[in-house]
Amino acid sequence: MNNVARHNGVPSQTKDHKTTSLWCTQAQQAFRSEPRNLTVRMGATAVLRCEVLRPSGTVQWVKDGLLLGPQRSLPGFPRYSMIGNPKRGQYHLQIEKAQLEDEEPYTCQVGQSESSQAIISSTAWVNVLIPPSEPYFEVDMETPWVAGKKYAVTCIAPDAKPVAEITLYKDGVELTGAESFTMSGSKDKLLNTHAEVTVTALSSDNGRQLACHAKNPALSRPAETTMTMSVYFPPQPPVIVGLQREEVKAGRTLALECVSHGGNPLASLQWTKNGEVLSKTWEADVVAQRSRSVLNLKITPADNQAVVCCESVNLVSLSPLSASRKITVLFEPAEVTLLGSFTAVEGQNLSLSCYATSSNPPVQIRWWLGYKELNSTVATMEEGDNSGMTTMSNMTHTVSRKEDGLKLTCEAFNKGTHFSKTRITTLDVYYPPQKVWLDTPPQDVPLRSGTTVRLICFSTGGNPTGTLTWFKNRTAVTDAPKQTSFDRGVARELVLVLTASDNMATYRCDATNKAKKTISAHTKLMVHFTAVSMKISTKQEELRRGQMLTLECQAGSSNPEANISWSLGGLRVQGVEQPPRSAQFGGVSLHSSLSLNLSSQYHNQRVICQAYSPVLEEGTNTFFKLNVLYPPEFSPEQPAQVQVVEDDMAAIPLLVSANPEEVSCIWLHHREKLVKEGDLRYHWSDENSLEIKNVTRKDAGVYKVNCTNDEGANQIAIMLDVQYAPRVKAETDPVVVNLGGTADLICVADANPIISDMFTWKWLGEGEVELGQETQEDESGLLTIHNVTRAHAGFYQCTANNGIASPATVNVQLLVQFEPELQKGSQWRKVASRGDGTSTAEVVCRAEGIPRVDFSWERNGVRMDFANPRYEERTVREGSFHTSTVRVVNVTAALDYAIFSCTARNSVGEDTLDIQLVSTNRPDPPSLFRQVGVSHDSVTLDWIPGFNGGLWQRFRVRYRWDKSAGFLYMDVFPPRVTTFTVTGLQPVTTYNFSVNALNEMGESDYADNNAVLTITTKERPDLGEVPTDDDSVSQSASGMPAYLTVVFTVTFGVLLVFNSLGCFFGLRWKKRRGQTGERGGNALDGTKSEKGGSSQSTVSNSNEYESRDKINATAQRTLLIDSGSETDSNVYESYAAESSHHYYPTGNYILPLSPLPEETRRLGVTHLPVDSQSHLYEDVRDGGLYQDILASPLPSSSSLFDHRLPHQKNEWRLPAYPQAAERVRDVRQPRRESDLPFEQQGELV
């Protein structure tokens, strides 16, 4: 309101000079008309006028300081609206259906604008006139008026504004002397008017009306209410009709009529007899102005000498009016009773009495025992009931056993009514029970409360049989079961569920009968019980934090003495115990007090007091719930810091507790109060917790929260940490390092948070390398690789992941510079050519190195001149691999059989290899011949091939055993494989194996200087065992019967033969096609065709030929294990399957013969012999068939192509010596045939 001025247009003095100048130069807004005080009737429509000239600010109405809003519909005030033409500045406030709540001060305000300051109108009050509610009388009208008495009549006109005026009328005549006063109404500002007048009731007022008129300015005509007066008077005395004689015989019914005339209201009648009301029923005849009542009275002996009276009375009678008659009744005795005991012990005198109740006249009494009248009697008469006479006859008689069971008769005779009545009974002789005993638990054995025990009482003898009754401490037990009978007496059982009250209680069983003699037996029980009651009390009414609370615990009686203890929140607390005191049921009571220093943690917790009995191992407890008042406190689990990802919704929980729970909290950020209207992104999910939508980094920081309740205030600071995903870049790319040096690859990230282990490095090349040491320095990730090898060269991926959104990555290239390394296996050291002057030879030198490798050549120590047309040099570079090929055209033995020296150089170093160009010849023998696996009927062998002599070579295995007549030979198939399985062997037999190589020129010596490999096969598996090897699957394992296996095997063999025949004819066609020069040239098969050159089908004129040692061009790296002499070279190169790496069988390959053509039987399965002349596999020159064999040095496919059924195959295992493990990589038995390379799966397509 500081910047708001009145409508005179004077600007606020707090505005700067520039703003004041602006207002002075533009038109000011002002009131054309202002609201004025208004008086309106309740329910009418009130309009407060407000008209503004040149309105430029927001116009609002203010009701008692509350802004109603700028909208014309005024939301939240359905009866309020702004009306008028806003274009003419009309903002009149219309109040529909005016109510008392609308009576408030109103002002019209116009807000400040750029061109004018704010203005406020004068205050206008709305005065609401409210008519009084319906007037009503306050007068005692529950009972009619009585003529002559004075009555106070009050009329009230409630809830009027202004005060109502009241006028009273009696039968249309205004009553004077009325006194009026006012009192507060049901609501504020409303008044009740009371008018009181005294009226004397007259008989003439009966049926006339009293009227009350109330009026005030809110009424156009007075409000009126009326009441009707009634006046009563007494009736005339009554008259009785219908009784002719005073003597009446009992049993007769009299019809008496009572009539009373007059009275207002008519009289009410009632009949009485000797002052006792008989009837209050009557009928009123308004026309005849009389009351009439008929009494039908059945006469009984009680009516003798009775006075029957009829009374008439109404509400105003001073005393009842009555008429009466006296009645004499003749009646017989109601009962004749025999008195005395009808049982007796034999020989005793029996005294009996016969009593006749009152009768008029009295009766005479006679006695009979059986059929004999007894005369020893004395009769007496006395006044009896109903004014009659009673008769008593006493008789004495000595009983004998013979009279037992006789009928004893007493007869009473009335002479006046000729009435006779008798009573008959039977005479008996009795004797009491003889013995009573109990079957109960021992008295000195304690019993546990809640235990069910049975007490049994037995009784024998007596006539009649005794009646058993149980008593507890002299009080009869009513809920005991009924007694039962047995052959000599009765028994009664009492079933007890023991309680505290049974401790040391006396239980007694009484046995009695009609002889009136009682004999008893009793016992006591010892009962252990827990405290019968528990109570916790305190003198403090309100509990507050920091106060010392004292609780008193009173434990009721227990036996034996219990231990009293306290616990709070599951923890034991120590109290102060008082000495025990004796208590009810023979136990002791305990008292303990506990003092607590109250804290907020105790709020709503239960303080438990327990009385525990160690003997019973049971306790009784009660609790006191703490209601601790404390100011707001923040939970220990309240997070001091909340982390959120940028652009997400931040939820800042506020874990606050207080008592009272009504807590008001204010949030501050950067010293500014947060309100919902201040930022639409703010939302309070519950009473206190804050949610911020689309959180940004600017929202980060400390949020202070101040919370208050009736007990005090508290505050807390919460840090909001806004996190965002990383962005990463390489500090240097590429990173160049020399072989053996240290490489540091660094990537830098921009992220929040920067966490430990945020950076990870990944090798993107093939194979596996040792990544080195990964470290992190703040926002930088460092990968340090020591002793860098060529295997480390390539791309590395740095990934930064702080757990926010997706990780960020960057690739860093590592270049490793190393000196050239030439490939120096046996296949690289020799090149063969016929030397007839028509052939062409290629001398290949391949090196790996970084940076660029350059080659130089020497022939017999002389640098070669490639200007000579017979020599052509070509260099091919693929990554770090560099290949230089010297092509020698028209090779002659005299000129070209020489040593070619290849030197590879780069900036790091150089390497040299001598390559000998020789004539085509038979192959060199294989080396490192060894055993790979052995079973009971097969042996798997492995070797390294030697130089092929310039021609395609194949291999042959020779073996024998001690009982064989000579050597057996088996050609290896496919021809180029160097791992082969010899099958069809005998179990537990020693064999000698050798292997050599063959080409078109001849065959080599046997491997390793004609060395012999001696191997003994294993034992055959037991018939009852389930084979564990993959090649000996039983019927149970395969789930297929043996005969089905044979059928499937024969079918498969026939299909395989047809397939092989197709391959055979296809191969012959390819041979003829190759001999005619149609086959394309290839550096691997020695058939490269050029202009002026010749084409050879079986001669390889290059030292770059296929063998088991392959170059992994994909990985572009080579691992040199050894580089020894030519004959003993052990070079193992890692390689992968490539499209150019295939096995090509030689053209004159002959199918291997079966070493054991005879039929064999084992395990009930017939093994069919294989025709050694059958062409199971033809020569295949399609390069795609064996391309995958290079990828995995598994057992040779020949081990899978053996002539056995599937269940006869045995797995082979790695040898135990390390050299074999070094040469045979990852040798394992495939789990299933589909896991093998294609060429080893047993089918050729």
Describe this structure in words.
The chain has 1245 residues and is mainly beta. The chain contains eight helices and 92 strands. Strands 59, 62, 63, 66, 67, 69, 71 and 72 form an eight-stranded mixed beta sheet that branches. Strands 68, 70, 73, 74, 76, 79 and 80 form a seven-stranded mixed beta sheet that branches. Strand 5 and strand 6 (66-67) form a beta hairpin. It is elongated. It starts with 16 loop residues before the first helix and ends in a 22-residue tail after the last helix.
Biggest sheet, in brief? Answer: 8 strands, mixed
Q: In total, how many beta strands?
A: 92
Counting DSSP H or I runs of 4 or more residues, the number of helices is 8
| Relative strand content | 35-45%
Share of helix, binned: under 10%
Poorly predicted segments: 1-25, 1025-1044, 1070-1100, 1105-1245
Shape: elongated
Mean pLDDT: 79
Distance between the amino and carboxyl termini: 99 Å
Q: Which structural class do the helices and strands define?
A: mainly beta
Radius of gyration: 66 Å
Membrane topology: Single-pass type I membrane protein
Transmembrane segments: 1042-1067
Family: Belongs to the immunoglobulin superfamily.
Domain Fibronectin type-III: 925-1020
